[in-house]
Task: inverse folding
């Protein structure tokens, strides 16, 4: 459900976006990034669900790390940005927003129903 809600873009879309933004770049895996000066991570979703292990390894390697996400945002991945992403990922996985909305909806339903009945609506 979390992945579905993230609405990730497919690989073809991300390859085309990468070619548009970084025409001189090549697409490879984490092993190919070992000696690179700059590495661009392609997040299919907005916050990079599942990318934390790759990020840790790349930040230790000393290369400039950038992110291009499925929402067409391009940003540097530094320690502060990783912290913010970690918090967003935790909130997304916990489904806290959905839980709060559900509780508020269930709590408000009797009052809304009573209001409608008092005004003569069925």
Result:
């Amino acid at each position: 459900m979390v992945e579905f809600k993230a609405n990730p873009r497919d690989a073809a879309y991300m390859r085309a976006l990468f070619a548009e933004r970084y025409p001189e770049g090549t697409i490879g895996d984490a092993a190919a990034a070992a000696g690179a000066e700059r590495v661009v991570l392609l997040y299919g979703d907005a916050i990079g669900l599942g990318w934390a292990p790759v990020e840790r390894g790349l930040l230790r390697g000393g290369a400039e790390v950038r992110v291009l996400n499925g929402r067409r945002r391009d940003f540097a991945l530094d320690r502060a940005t990783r912290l913010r992403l970690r918090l967003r990922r935790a909130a997304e996985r916990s489904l806290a927003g959905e839980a709060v909305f559900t509780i508020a909806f269930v709590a408000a339903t009797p009052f809304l129903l009573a209001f409608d009945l008092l005004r003569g609506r069925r």
Remarks:
- The chain has a mean pLDDT of 88.
